[in-house]
Amino acid sequence: MLYPILRAVMHLLRRIFLFTGLHVDGLEKVPKSGPVLVVGNHIASLDPPLTGALIKRFDVYYMAKSEYFVKRWQRWLFKGYNAFPVVRHSADRTSLKQALSILRDGHVLMMYPEGTRSVDLQVHRPYAGAGFLARKSAAPIVPVAVWGSEGVLPKGASWPRHDSEVHIRFGDPFLLPERNADGTRMDHQQSADYMMARVAAMLPERYRGVFGPGGDVSAASPAA
What we know:
Layout: H1 2-17, E1 22-25, E2 36-40, H2 47-54, E3 60-65, H3 72-80, E4 83-86, H4 93-104, E5 108-111, H5 128-137, E6 141-147, E7 166-170, H6 188-200
Parallel strand pairs: 1-7, 2-5, 2-6, 3-4, 3-5
Antiparallel strand pairs: 6-7
Helix pairs in contact: 1-2, 5-6
């Protein structure tokens, strides 16, 4: 009951602070029914609620770090926005089971494979758990690339900026291949890398990080 209200509030804030500065491409590529796993890069706190609110479905769920569920008011807010906790840097079986259940029931799940917001705005290597979830669910995957959102509420600012230009680009749905280009079976880490590579390919070059020119994803560690 609370989600439609919070979603409406998100749209109101978008119209106030991003009246002409929000550019959305490919939103029609998100399936209108059935399970969907939406994966993206994460550079600002605004990314999950704004991206989810744009999807024209009310059954959008979010994985959020468990620290957001400690304080009572935060727990109320995040649960109201269809978010559930995940303990980062661990094999959180409870959150994985909930995520798989959401997809099994035909809903949308938003996930950020890097596991945290990127403070340097670069795409970092994702966690293998994201690949496990994607492969286990077998749900269609929709990549989403976001840039410019870091300028809406930069560090030290007490009020959102009206002159920010935010871009959100949705890509074509895809399924994970069973094998790598060399014919070897794709493991969970490689599956996660494959998903993030699809996201990074839609970003301007300066945001691509380990997936950009000169980057070496095989030598990189998952995001801290």
